[in-house]
Amino acid sequence: xxxxxxxxxxxxxxxxxxxxxxxxxxxxxxxxxxxxxxxxxxxxxxxxxxxxxxxxxxxxxxxxxxxxxxxxxxxxxxxxxxxxxxxxxxxxxxxxxxxxxxxxxxxxxxxxxxxxxxxxxxxxxxxxxxxxxxxxxxxxxxxxxxxxxxxxxxxxxxxxxxxxxxxxxxxxxxxxxxxxxxxxxxxxxxxxxxxxxxxxxxxxxxxxxxxxxxxxxxxxxxxxxxxxxxxxxxxxxxxxxxxxxxxxxxxxxxxxxxxxxxxxxxxxxxxxxxxxxxxxxxxxxxxxxxxxxxxxxxxxxxxxxxxxxxxxxxxxxxxxxxxxxxxxxxxxxxxxxxxxxxxxxxxxxxxxxxxxxxxxxxxxxxxxxxxxxxxxxxxxxxxxxxxxxxxxxxxxxxxxxxxxxxxxxxxxxxxxxxxxxxxxxxxxxxxxxxxxxxxxxxxxxxxxxxxxxxxxxxxxxx
Length: 462
Ligand code: ARG
Description:
The protein is mainly α and about 450 residues long. It has helices at about 15-20, 25, 30-45, 55-70, 85-95, 110-145, 165-190, 210-215, 225-230, 235-260, 285-310, 325-350, 355-360, 365-375, 380-400, 405-415, 420-425, 425-430, 440-460; strands at about 150-155, 160-165, 190-195, 220, 265-270, 350. It has 3 domains: about 5-105, Fumarase C, Chain B, domain 1 (Orthogonal Bundle), CATH 1.10.275; about 110-145 and about 165-205 and about 220-350, Fumarase/aspartase (Central domain) (Fumarase C, Chain A, domain 2, Up-down Bundle), CATH 1.20.200.10; about 365-460, Fumarase/aspartase (C-terminal domain) (Ribonucleotide Reductase Protein R1, domain 1), CATH 1.10.40.
């Protein structure tokens, strides 16, 4: 295809450069955004009298035809075109003649690509948010189902204090809720219309930028032409949100992998979400979790790639910026696969309540509560901690649990112990007494679930 910019050149581009610089293999994904943006631009050019109404109408009709063919799968993309913008413009002129050559009036590919990517980012943010909201909903439902399911909480991956599965799941709800907020923010950043920035210095034509924004549903227009074509912050925000979200998924996956081990045995993945081994007949591997954990690396890579592309660029547009798309699309595609797969896997995972509770009873998870009991009897916490620690030491040697010690043995460690100690260090008591806001007590988790449901209702729109 002849270059639309070839006027000042005497030689054609080298085939190596043609291949090297072509972005159509990946930016054809922007075709709908590109054509829709051009329809708005042409409509405005006609309304402003910059183009004749006749030309504007011919352009709009031509572009609508291209869009319809594309949606019907009838458009053959010319891989020889430099990029999607050139492809659409050349095709339009092919189809409608002279008027097609007037479409690019008052516009540069620099503000055009900025517009296209923003439009695509708006859709991407909306779709990822919708998937995250489904996961949040599931977490609320599961947490409500498991607010009385006692399990061990860990620090340093050593048993720490008894909590509930519902409480644990609500921790993940908080993380994914913040992810939703990050994608909402990335959406707002993308929601600014850059056309009119031209190549870098605006344009001499009396464009109506607000009208284009209105036609395309943008909330605002950009306020500086140089920034309008240089800015990819909205993609970096998307990639940063994507990276954080993947990090959260990855931590959750790590826990599910751990819980599915023979050593933990507190979760059983549905057969539909596990794979077998070609040699070991007994194997049931948590591949969905492992792949999600693994794909986190590539999304971080996408973020790093774009941050690095942008870091040395002088204003305004540089061709380096063409590298934004593959990183963005890759992270987007990865999330669009990981989120529904993870959500469905979690929904179908069975949690072994009895095993969770049994495991919570091991490892002295009630040692803090035993110390707190003595504080209730007037001991300073530091002394109570010491008494509890010495009893743990005794139990470790004798392979017993704190609950197994007789009252005499307890009294030998400190005379303040009474019969009510056993009730005080029962796992259910330990959990129930932590009823302050944000705590694991079923009542506190219930409150937290209710706040979560309210938040969901407020954030389900838009
Ligand atoms: N394909 C280019 C990109 O993706 C479009 C903008 C090209 N602008 C230019 N001045 N060469 O960034």
